[in-house]
Design a protein that fits this description.
With 391 residues, the protein is mostly helical. It binds magnesium ion.
Length: 391
Amino acid sequence: MEHNSALAPYAIDSKASRGRRVNESPPAWRNEFQRDRDRIIHSSAFRRLEYKTQVFVNHEGDMFRTRLTHSLEVAQIARTVARALRVNEDLTEAISLSHDLGHTPFGHAGQDALNACMQDYGGFEHNLQSLRVVDKLEQRYQAFDGLNLLFETREGILKHCDKSKARGLGEVGARFLEGQQASVEAQIANLADEIAYNHHDIDDGLRAGILLPELFNEHPGLKDSLEISEQRDGLDTKRQFDIAIREMLGTFVNDLIVTSAERLAGHCSGLADVRALGTPVVDFSSAVRAQHIQLKRLLHRELYSDARVKVFATAAGITVTELFEQFFHHPHLLPPDRQPHRSRDEVGHARTIADYIAGMTDRFAIAEHQRLTGSATWPEPITSNSTARYR
Ligand code: MG
């Protein structure tokens, strides 16, 4: 059970939750946020994360992160920070595990293509889609659609949202209209996400042979961490880089905990203070924040924009766009239980198709695209690159 006595005053206590949209009797052996976490793990959208791209398309190899392992790494970092700051670890875990449930196949390339297809019908945004998955699209309970999660979990999933969309979302959209910050638990999950992908993308990029070891000289955090691991005797290159990445991740997490604890102690005696601040209270020191931003820029330049990665992004865009066009104009191609309702307008029709495509795994989307168009647009996997100097 929850250690209520140990929770900080700005933590969210499950007993003080604003509740579920449909009332349910309390669980016997778990607190309410543990129940949310368990529902997320048992959802089909969560299982499908195993076959969805993080950076490298799922069929490229078994060594790279997928959305599932990414989500587990986010949760593990976030739980450490939550426990250290004495906020609700179960809520932090539930938000972390569900934050990417709405991701399309093929990562950001898939989302961008689906958003372009949906331009005239309200657009597509993976973060909003994550909320849609837990509120509506999972259909496995008798009394409700979705997972009927607690308000605090749902609000935490919604990281960003423009005001026009927030108006249609009811109570979870309110904080965007009122200019309020998210809970400490949601802020932790958000930064744990960024820490996780920055570090695991360096690792995967090296393994793919796209990032070169020399890159470590271009970033002060990477350089310092590598120097620490190079001082140890008898390590092969791979182990040196493994240690360096872990060293830097540890530095970032430690800095986040220490800085956030100071800021919370200085500004917040309760959750109302956290929400009213002009900026998120969970943050790095200015020196580490600068390194964090520098790391993102480096990854954009050297990994996400690399021609070999872009080839896949292009194929992903074509696949999603053509799937959308096929289903939009020939809805009978959809499975019987996913047919748009006859009485629905064009916007509803488009949304049904976007929901279906967003739920696809990489390999299912590739197979469906081939079935419907007969064309195979997929290049050779990046793992065939034998020039990698690090594995
Ligand atoms: Mg993420």
